Amino acid sequence: MIHQIDIEDPSSILHSIPAPGSSSAGLAWDGEYLWNVDYSGDMIYKLDPNTGDILLEIPTPTDHIWGLTWDGE
User: Fold this and answer.
1) pLDDT in tens, 12-62
2) DSSP code of 68?
3) Which residue among 15, 19, 23, 40 has its CA within the 20 to 30 Å range from the CA of 66?
């Protein structure tokens, strides 16, 4: 699962969506969508942050990527 937590009370979960794949290894937020990389499946997913629906699947350029970032473009 991917959890949105309350920064004032990190033990409080505000919202959760299912994580695609079996080994989530990074998240990025582009201001509208949540992006997730799966280490084992070698896929990057564009997710609807409200439902967790997969909107786009992109194979990673190399095997076993850890981490994800958004450069604003």
Assistant:
1) 999 999 999 888 889 999 999 999 999 989 999 999 999 999 999 999 988
2) -
3) 15
DSSP class of 19 = P
Q: Are 26 and 19 in contact (CB under 8 A)?
A: no
Q: Are 44 and 34 in contact (CB under 8 A)?
A: no
Closest CA to 69 of 19, 23, 28: 28
CA distances from 33 to 2, 26, 55 (A): 13, 14, 9
Q: Which tokens sit at 58?
A: 């992109």
Q: Is the pLDDT of residue 8 over 90?
A: yes
Does residue 25 contact residue 66 with C-beta atoms inside 8 Å?
yes
What is the reported pLDDT for 72? 85
Site of tokens 């505000």: 14
